[in-house]
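Ticket closed. Logging final result for Formate dehydrogenase subunit gamma.
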Amino acid sequence: MFVSTAWAGLWRMVALTLVLLVGLGVTQPALAQADPDREAATAAAGVSPDTWRQVRSGETGPNFRDSRADSTYNLVNASGETWRQWRNRWISPFGLIAIGGMLVVIALFYLIVGRKDLSEPRTGRKLLRWPLVVRAIHWTVATLFIVLALTGLNLLYGKFVFRPLFGDGIWAAMMSGTKLIHNYLGPLFGILLIVLLARVLKHNWPKRHDLEWFKKGGGMVGKAHVDAGFANAGEKAWFWLLATVGIVVIASGVVLDFPNYGQGRDTMQWANIIHAVGALGLTAVALGHIYIGTIGSEGSFEGMATGYVDETWARDHHNLWYEEVKDQAIPEERLAAGGQPSGGSEAPTPRSG
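Final structure:
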C-alpha cells in the first residue's frame, strides 16, 4: 500500500511537470514572426569604427545614450560585451560540465555500486518521519525547482537546440512562455524554500558525528554503519547549500525579476552571472539528491511519499534517531486499517535524556 501511494505521488509530480512543459510550447500561440520591413524601418544605422571608439570611451552623443530615468549608460556599451563573453565562454560551458558530469557520475555509480538495499528484511513496523505539512511543502518546492531548472536551461541553451528544430516562430513562442513561467514561479519558489528551510532547521545543526560520516563516505568506506541522527551529514550539507547558495540565487533572481527599483545595468549583469552560476551548481547537486532519494537507496522515497519509514531503514540510515523513537513504531497493518492518520502533524518526538 505504501509503495503504491509513493508511486501515485511520483506520477502526480511528473504529470504536473509535463503540463507545465507543454505550456512552454503553447504559450502565446498567436505570436507572429517579426516583420522584416518594420524592423528595417526602425533599425539603427550602421556603427562605424569611429563610433565604436566613442562608445568605448563614453563620448557618444544622445542618439547612443539611454536617457530614461536620467541614465548615462551607452546603448551600445563595453560592459555588455564583457557580460556576453562571460556568459558564452565561461557560464554556459560550466553548466554543461557540472550537469553533464553529475549525470555521468550517477550513471557510473549506479552501474558499478548499484542500489543500496536494506541490510535486513523489513520489520513491517513504521516510524513517522515526515509530517504532512513538511511533505506538502517539500513536493511543491521540488516541483517548482524542476520547472525552474528546465526553464532556466531553456533560456541558456534553448536557442541552440529548439531554434534549429522548430524555426524562429515556434522557438520565439517557446522562449516567451519559458521566460514568463520562470519569472513568475521564481519568487514563489523563493518564499516556499525559505519556509521549508525554517521548518526543518532544527534537524540540520552540525553534530560531532557528522565529521565521521564524511570520513567514511556515508558508510561506503568500511563495513560498519555510520552514526546519524534525524538527518545525516550528507542531508545537512544539502540543507546548508540551499540555505546559502540557494538564498543567493533567490536574491539575484529578485534583482533580475524587478528591474524597476533603481538597479543599474552593471548590477543586473552581475546578478545574471551570480544567478546562473549558483542555479547551475544547485541543479547539478540536486541530481545527486534526487538519485539518492529515489532509485539509489531502498526505502528512501517512501519516507517522503507516505511520511513513514520501516524500522530497518531507520536503523540502517539514521540509527541515532531510531534509538530515540523506536518505541513509537506502529505496525503496518494498523496504518493500513486507518489506526493512525497518515502523515500526522508532527514527527516522533525523541525521548529526553
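The beta strands are 125-128, 308-310, 330-331. No further action required.
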